[in-house]
Every structure is written in structure tokens, then in C-alpha cells.
Design a protein that fits this description.
With 198 residues, the chain is mainly alpha-helical. Helices cover 69% and strands 0% of the residues. It has one domain. Helix 1 packs across helix 7 and helix 1 runs parallel beside helix 8.
Length: 198
């Protein structure tokens, strides 16, 4: 699927599972899911997909940064969890996250960046930086993998193994993409409204 579908479904899945009941509880969910929903597509090779994905990745980075700033201003959970394991571990986690993302960006599309190995390494390094964002990150990342498994092109879930997996039900950029984006958006709005009313 394309970026809009991944954002909508990834955010909706994270909000559904995490069920934040307040803005302070929602900020780690927003931050983790915003990063996790599109990080798999650091490896896009197709120029049109790369451009679209880049624009949405920038938007998600801005959203994550805004949530981090708001969290800092209200003294909420993300920054309180940062440095839990010491500043050297924090810097090591941050450096590892950057290096893993750099490797993902030069790997072949639907290879390392879409794998369980990337998920484990990125989630572990993020956990060392902002522990409370790791779980929503994992949820959004997994939603990306599930949506991409539905496509015609295989993804290498067990990288470095060469075998790719796919269900081959949909083309990534056609009607199913729009349908998942719409359903994910409605789902996300419904979950937020239900959480706000609870």
C-alpha cells in the first residue's frame, strides 16, 4: 500500500491497542506510531513512490516532533522515560537508530527495511531512547507489514533470507490503497472519539 493507507491504519491500530485516555497518554502513541507507520518505506526505489513517501515521512516526522515538544511542555511521559538507562545508553540507542535507518534507506525495496530484523533492531534502539514510544512503534510497523503482505510484490520478512512473502490480493497503488486509507481514517477518528468520551 501507499503512504496514506499506512498512516491511517498504523495510527488507528496503535490507538486501538494502546487506548490512551488523555492527551499526555496519547503523545507517546502519536510519536511512536508516526515513526513506525512509514519507516519501512525508507527503502523506496520507484521515483513516484519515493517522492510520495518522502513527503508523508516528513509530515510524520513533524507530527512526532510536535508531540515531543508538547510532551516536554506539559512534562509528560516521553521525556520522563528518556535517559532511564543513563545518558550513554540514550546516545547509543539514538546512534543505533540512525545507523539502522541509514542502512534501511540503501537496502533494496521490501527487503531489510520491511523485515522482522529491522523491526527488532529499530524497536530496541528506540526503546533505549524513548521507551514509552516503542510499543506504538511496533504496532504501526507491524500494520505496515500486514498491509504490504496483501500486495502483489513480496516482502522479505525474514531478511537476510532471500524468500519473500505475499498474498497477492491487491496492487499497492490502486483501489485497495484508497479503501484502506479511508477505512483507516474513519477507524482512527472513531477510536479517538470513543477514547475521548470514555
Amino acid at each position: 500500500m501507499m503512504a496514506k493507507a499506512h498512516i491511517a491504519v498504523g495510527m488507528a491500530a496503535a490507538f486501538t491497542i494502546m487506548r490512551p485516555g488523555s492527551i499526555p497518554e496519547a503523545l507517546p502513541v502519536v510519536t511512536g506510531a508516526a515513526i513506525g507507520c512509514l519507516i519501512c518505506d525508507l527503502d523506496c526505489e520507484n521515483p513516484r513512490e519515493r517522492t510520495e513517501s518522502s513527503h508523508y515521512r516528513i509530515a510524520m516526522a513533524v507530527l512526532a516532533a510536535a508531540a515531543l515538544i508538547e510532551d516536554h511542555l506539559i512534562g509528560s511521559g516521553i521525556w520522563k522515560s528518556a535517559g532511564r538507562y543513563g545518558q550513554y545508553v540514550w546516545f547509543a540507542g539514538f546512534a543505533a537508530f540512525v545507523l539502522i535507518c541509514a542502512f534501511a534507506s540503501i537496502s533494496k525495496h521490501r527487503g531489510f527495511a520491511h523485515s522482522f530484523l529491522a523491526l527488532a533492531l529499530e524497536a530496541a534502539s528506540l526503546w533505549l531512547v524513548f521507551p514509552v514510544t516503542a510499543k506504538p512503534f511496533v504496532i504501526a510497523f507491524l500494520s505496515h507489514q500486514v498491509l504490504d503482505l496483501l500486495n502483489k510484490k513480496p516482502i522479505r520478512l525474514f531478511y537476510p533470507a532471500e524468500k519473500g512473502f505475499r498474498l497477492g490480493l491487491f496492487y499497492a497503488d490502486r483501489f485497495a490503497n484508497k479503501a484502506f486509507a479511508a477505512v483507516g481514517t474513519v477507524w482512527l477518528i472513531a477510536v479517538i472519539l470513543i477514547s475521548a468520551g470514555a
